[in-house]
């Protein structure tokens, strides 16, 4: 058997606090702090607890060269344990799952810290709305009561301010002022197909395709992208769009077409709520758009680059604002959120979570006539005493 350390690995000390049982037996209530080594690997879905022996052993192994097991001068039980945990990669058939996942990480050419950050930051089955309500962290007043005042909205700088001219509002200023994130969608009003198609055209459709080589395409869209790579892939969850069958589709920006996936959830709204981490105020949108980062496309150019992952997140920001403005122009509402259950989306879309993984969800639909969930509309451009402006 041959072995080597996995390609991306970070060690951290995990600190847990709990009641000191020995002190409790003696009639005292005291906290006890427990320290333990924890490993986060680029190909594993969860951290792994390690012994000090295992930490030392990992520090003696190379990740880029195979070693023979009979040459390992440590304890064979430690080596076997690390193979079972997936932190040491073996060429044995029983370790094929870990080996294949690690091979995909190696082929990705990602910068280790950002690759680990994305993997470790994914959620599964989180109900963020329930947690906010349970901890009284829904309103600004509740947040202030728990955490105190936030940092100042604008940082202070010495010096004499130089007033700038304020231009008169134009049509675009009026459009921008009506861009308000929607938390109250009409669940029953269908979105016209032409409206949805125009928003996709202005947001994520490819308006030109450049082919520098027979097996290479560069897309021109209406949004900027780091290196012109456009690594975000869109999956459309159709909930109520005229002329389209409800379900999950893949959007092709080159042909401007949807392809319905073969496997569909039995309860579409329930699956959307799960993917949205319990944010039920977004579920009723007529069309949800899942933005999946294809890391392999971005890292093809930016190999092991410390800014590559940041560029992907900037791409997502550009896309969400373009979507919001395009929706507002059409008179419909929109939302965007990064609070998503990545694991559950990956399971739904059959993504490996390594080369492809979601970074945000957004959506469009008609706004409800009555305000049920609070929306941030301080200028009152949308709502008037809980009812939409006419």
TrEMBL record:
Coiled-coil stretches: none
Native organism taxonomy: Bacteria, Pseudomonadati, Pseudomonadota, Gammaproteobacteria, Lysobacterales
Matches recorded under CDD domains: McbC_SagB-like_oxidoreductase
GO MF annotation list: oxidoreductase activity
InterPro entries, per the entry: Bacteriocin_Proc_Enz (IPR052544), Nitroreductase (IPR029479), Nitroreductase-like (IPR000415), SagB-rel_DH_2 (IPR030965), SagB-type_dehydrogenase (IPR020051)
Signal peptide: none
The protein's name: Nitroreductase domain-containing protein
UniProt-listed PANTHER family: NITROREDUCTASE MJ1384-RELATED
Superkingdom of the organism of origin: Bacteria
Domain Nitroreductase: 178-366
